[in-house]
From TrEMBL:
<feature type="modified residue" description="4-aspartylphosphate">
    <location>
        <position position="54"/>
    </location>
</feature>
<protein>
    <submittedName>
        <fullName>Response regulator receiver domain-containing protein</fullName>
    </submittedName>
</protein>
<dbReference type="GO" id="GO:0000160">
    <property type="term" value="P:phosphorelay signal transduction system"/>
</dbReference>
<dbReference type="Pfam" id="PF00072">
    <property type="entry name" value="Response_reg"/>
</dbReference>
<dbReference type="InterPro" id="IPR011006">
    <property type="entry name" value="CheY-like_superfamily"/>
</dbReference>
<dbReference type="InterPro" id="IPR001789">
    <property type="entry name" value="Sig_transdc_resp-reg_receiver"/>
</dbReference>
<feature type="domain" description="Response regulatory">
    <location>
        <begin position="1"/>
        <end position="121"/>
    </location>
</feature>
<dbReference type="InterPro" id="IPR052893">
    <property type="entry name" value="TCS_response_regulator"/>
</dbReference>
<keyword id="KW-0597">Phosphoprotein</keyword>
Length: 136
């Protein structure tokens, strides 16, 4: 199960399509910001195998969301990746304080999104087909 947290509909759509086509066994849930994700996690028992967070979002950004996840004993071990189209040294320092290597450049086209899904979720980890989108 993968949670995708991004306010950009186009990026979500490409990431969603890449997972569905190349990893059809993934169960996908989408959220438009970090607060929506945290509200969902508080209300439901499901814990994802992976969280993909956009760095820059309204309401609650990716760094704040990651910080809250890492301070929770229930969620701190969930692999989490932050995507950004631009990096600032300040962002790298804040993210590295919370855990190593989670920041990646956001893909700019479909083939790059496919590459990202293959890196984050190898084909041998999934079976069957099921996808859903959480409503906030």
């Amino acid at each position: 199960m993968i949670f995708i947290v991004d306010d950009d509909d186009d990026d979500c759509s490409m990431l969603w399509q890449a997972f569905q086509k190349h990893h059809p066994g993934c169960l996908l849930f989408g959220f438009s910001d970090g607060q929506e994700l945290l509200d969902h996690l508080a209300d439901y028992y499901d814990v994802p195998d992976l969280i993909i967070l956009d760095l820059n979002m309204p309401v609650m950004d990716g760094i704040t969301t990651l910080k809250r996840l890492k301070h929770s004993s229930r969620f701190r071990t969930i692999p989490t990746v932050l995507l950004s189209s631009s990096f600032e040294t300040n962002h790298n320092l804040r993210i590295n304080e919370l855990g190593p290597g989670a920041l990646r450049f956001k893909p700019t086209n479909y083939s790059e999104f496919v590459q990202l899904t293959n890196q984050l979720y190898p084909a041998e980890t999934v079976s069957g087909f099921n996808s859903a989108k959480a409503k906030g």
